[in-house]
Specification:
Elements: E1 11-16, H1 20-34, E2 53-59, H2 63-72, E3 78-80, H3 83-94, E4 112-115, H4 122-131, E5 135-138, H5 146-159, E6 165-167, H6 175-186, E7 192-199, H7 206-209, H8 225-228, H9 230-241, E8 246-250, E9 264-270, E10 276-282, E11 290-296, E12 299-304, E13 307-313, H10 317-323, E14 334-340, H11 348-369, H12 384-403, E15 407-408, H13 413-427
Parallel strand pairs: 1-2, 1-4, 2-3, 4-5, 5-6, 7-10
Antiparallel strand pairs: 7-11, 8-9, 8-15, 9-10, 11-12, 12-13, 13-14
Helix pairs in contact: 4-5, 5-12, 6-9, 9-12, 12-13
């Protein structure tokens, strides 16, 4: 029988970025530290006896944020004015230049960082954490452009598998999305020939765009809806269907707003197996929806919100097309069913992903301490490398729209970066 490990202390996080989302994550972690009765699906809790995460440090440049830390997280949380000061304090605490990546040393201030800052700062902060031997959980997107992310990705690869480097793409944890992926990967729908995703749930006002100086700009966000609201949906797309071979985009920049970036984008993608995909995202439509239509040779699936409508054929349409003597699909047997897979609340998927991160960190430490092969360690749901793929699709779409041509992947990141810098200069 395999030995059972005693309950472990939480993976200790340093929160870098205590704005609205950072505080939401902190509250979520605090709530689950107090109440461990949740039973979110899709997470292995073998290594998560007790609360799996705690916040032990926060980077705060503002007095108001420091007050919030004291009132919400308690006096025991270390507050540093900058990330540099955070790592210096950690080095002082451990008596060494770096902390212990597995969290074995009780003297470290923290084991991992939770990065929730504007996206242009993500690559430098991720690199800094990895250089100091810390695991990383970073909010989306990975950065402002694929080119900007290249040094960060190289550092992550150099430190793998000793350090877990993950991203917050919580839609991978939605029950309906996991069910769709299961149907696709199992072959239940046959070979996927066409897919269309329309997402209009992110209506945004002028007040929203003006709420932060870095919002909706080439210089700071690297674009509009595709890199602000779009990363979660683009990540879902590539998680379900993989990376396309080509991207052709139609983007009416500033369709609903007086700015240079996109508030609506339409992408047409092609795949090596001749699958075609259409992806539409907008922030300008009042009645929001998320609708996905997947057409395969053995069935069809339509997702409308929490509802999945599934049609299964009694044979592959490629075979039926060749063998039948009739002129249409009248002799094709079809079985229909519906499945409703709602999320318990808006934050359940976030928490499931955070728990997965804690499991990955702990399992990595256990594999190393027991001398096991690192392949035994749990991989995070969304690795940094997989998380950059949605950014590559977005960059390809922008390049396609700017140059009015179909862009082939892998992306020419240097060409895109030159074009981006041109648009940043024009915007200024």
């Amino acid at each position: 029988m395999e030995d059972r490990q005693p309950a472990q202390r939480p993976v200790r996080l340093a929160l870098i970025g205590a704005g609205s989302m950072g505080r939401n994550y902190a509250r979520l972690i605090g709530e689950h530290a107090a109440n461990r009765t949740d039973r979110t699906a899709g997470v292995d809790r073998t290594n998560c006896a007790g609360s799996p995460l705690s916040i032990t440090a926060v980077v705060s440049r503002h007095e108001e944020t420091t007050r919030w830390v004291r009132e919400t997280l308690g006096d025991g949380v270390f507050v540093a004015p900058t990330a540099d000061a955070l790592y210096a304090a950690d080095a002082d605490a451990t008596g060494a230049a770096t902390g212990a990546a597995t969290g074995d040393a009780e003297t470290t201030l923290f084991d991992a960082v939770l990065i929730v800052t504007p996206q242009e700062s993500h690559p430098a902060l991720v690199e800094q954490a990895l250089r100091h031997g810390k695991h990383v959980l970073c909010d989306k997107p990975a950065g402002k452009s694929v080119k900007q992310c290249e040094p960060m990705l190289a550092t992550a690869r150099a430190n793998a598998p000793d350090l877990v480097c993950a991203m917050i793409f919580q839609q991978r944890m939605f029950a309906r999305h996991r069910r769709i992926r299961e149907l696709i990967r199992s072959g239940a729908l046959g070979e996927i020939r066409r897919a269309q995703l329309v997402d209009s749930q992110y209506f945004r006002t002028v007040a929203y765009h003006h709420s932060r100086p870095w919002r909706s700009s080439w210089a700071h966000e690297g674009g509009g809806v595709l890199v602000s609201q779009g990363p979660h949906i683009l990540d879902l797309w590539q998680w379900l269907f993989g990376m396309p071979s080509t991207v052709h985009a139609t983007i009416p920049f500033g369709k609903y707003n007086d700015f240079a970036v996109d508030d609506e984008s339409t992408l047409v993608m092609t795949y090596p197996n001749r699958m075609t995909g259409t992806f539409i995202i907008t922030t300008g439509e009042g009645v929001g929806e998320t609708r996905l239509d997947v057409q395969g040779t053995r069935g069809q699936l339509v997702m409308e919100g929490d509802l999945l409508r599934i049609w299964r054929y009694d044979r592959d349409t490629a075979d039926y097309r060749r063998e039948t003597t009739c002129f249409n699909a009248s002799e094709l047997g079809v079985e229909y069913r519906e499945e409703t897979l709602p999320e318990p609340d808006g934050w359940a998927a976030y928490w499931a992903l955070m728990e997965n991160f804690a499991v990955a960190v702990r399992s990595q430490g256990q594999s190393r301490s027991r001398g096991r092969d690192q392949k035994d360690a749990v991989e995070p749901v969304a690795t940094l490398e997989s998380g950059i793929r949605s950014l590559e699709i977005a960059d390809a779409a922008y390049l396609s729209a700017w140059e009015d041509r179909t862009v082939t992947l892998p992306l020419d990141a240097d060409r895109f970066e030159r074009a981006l810098q041109t648009h940043i200069a024009a915007e200024a």
